[in-house]
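Re: weekly structure request thread

Next one in the queue (614 aa):
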Amino acid sequence: MKIKREGVRTRSSYKKQKAGTSNGGISHLDNPFEEEFGSSSGSGQGVWTELSGEVASNLANTVVSLASFSEGDYTHQQHWIFPSNPREFMIENLEMRSYAGNTMFFACTGIIIKNDPETKITSFLTSLSLVRSTEDDSKIFQDMKIQVCLPDDRVELGWLNFWDLQHNLAVINIPRFHTLRVACLDNQRQFECHSKVVAVGRCFNSGKLMATAGMLTDNPSRDYHEELAISTCEITMTGVGGPLINFDGDFIGMNFYSEKETPFLPRNKIGELLKQFSERILSWAKKGPGSTVERFPIPNKSDSQECQPGLKDKILNCKCFHARWPYSSALGVAEKQELRSNGYPFPLWEDIGRRLVNSFEEEFSANISSELQKEVASNMSQSVVALDSFVGRKRSFACTGIVIECNESTTRVLTSASLVRNSEIENKVADNLKIVVCLPDNRIIPGTLQHYSLNYNIAVIGITGFCCTQAARISDQVQLKPHGAVVALGRVYISGKLMATRGVVTSKPSELNCKDIVISTCKITKAGIGGPLIDFDGNFIGMNFYGLEETPYIPMNTILQLLGNFGAEGTIAIDDHSLSRWPVPKPFWCYPTWHRSEEELDVEEFLAKMNVPF
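Done, posted below.
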């Protein structure tokens, strides 16, 4: 049977309908989501005269209105403002403050189904039409901004926590605990055909609570989904997602929209779906290390606005989805600013334990700084620096450098040319680049690009007005024995922490297309790029680059030759025409809950293989 889409009517078809409703409601032709139906709770008319005070009170305290907003300009949609009503003026001010330039996409009704004081999260049951495409039923608009207008007129930002495409059901969460009444969905009463029922809805802008009476019927006139039932209640689009109850206030189902009758999803099916969701969350919590590692999508290009391509689409298509990041605009502002200034992508999912992988702040998993000889440790702590490069206010790269020369007025630092390389065009230095150097004493001073070779991926940064007390010992007389023990060093720019990890030099060929590269078994992070490789006597062996399993480095004799060429040529750059590639992994977000449940991945085990501390 073809599944009919319930609960959605286009605005063009809506405008063809004559003003007014069959049962006396008020019609707003420009806003189908504000069209009233039945009678309002404060009118003392209609079905409200038949409901007890207790039932009316329960409805007033458990039924809410929700609205979604999309960025962009839709010519057939408008903001609907009613400044004669102070409450509506307050809501419009909030929209202007939080959603400047955004347009209402959909508005509907919902009910409070959970209010958890421990997690401080309140959940609402409503229709998935709130964020579902009217053009493609399989598409969910994840970028929608969701507002929930509570019974006490407070408006909160919410997120899509769970949905079911087949049954057009959604659960919306807000990140605050309110002393609100929770609707009871688990009554055991059976409802027969022709039982009298009441459909309830609430307008988003006016906050009016409405209800209309009807009865259950087993004679549907349309080709609805087989699990839907029908009542003769006549509601408007405003009532989509609202509850259907009997006159005793018992919950029967959730309403959708149709012009002549009201299809609804019965209580028992809603209970099954919510139970499946709860059980899945519990299974996520119970899963631990030991799962099979099947796959883990690692991007080769980062999405600067949200998260990596590929993984983003897979997460958004996941049936059970937790909080969209940031779950609170107020709490997300500071993190957004920090991520943006550091050049990192925004997370997509507010997952417990989410972490940014391949950041410039990741430390070496094994730090042996304390094991170095006292003199070696002292010399390295004074000559190893951290560097950052910026384009405007956005960080471009961060890495380590080693002081190779110092005199009374000038200090020169050897580092990786990745610091100055254009991230989009590998054979070009970035324009308008600013370089800053974090000294061993944590002072931050500007640096200047003096020389570079993009082919060998090395650069020399000059610092004026500063004299370092210690420079690295670079000599072509140092002989390293085969499989000799070495130490890779790095310094984190933000914390200033000096790191060291041990390994041995191998005869393994490098996968990089630079013939001079040698491999050591040291395992570093991106923060260690450009840092020195030394022996345990403190002699300079080479400069490190990044590798997933091992660390490629450019040896001392090649570096000395390049430094000599820099001086002889008297130019800033020296390269041949064949450019070597020096890949650096992009940062991406890891979502432990999602990866464990959807990809059967033990995240700790995977990241350990990547040499990423977890």
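The first helix runs from residue 11 to 16. The CA atoms of residues 478 and 548 lie 28 Å apart.
Next request, please.
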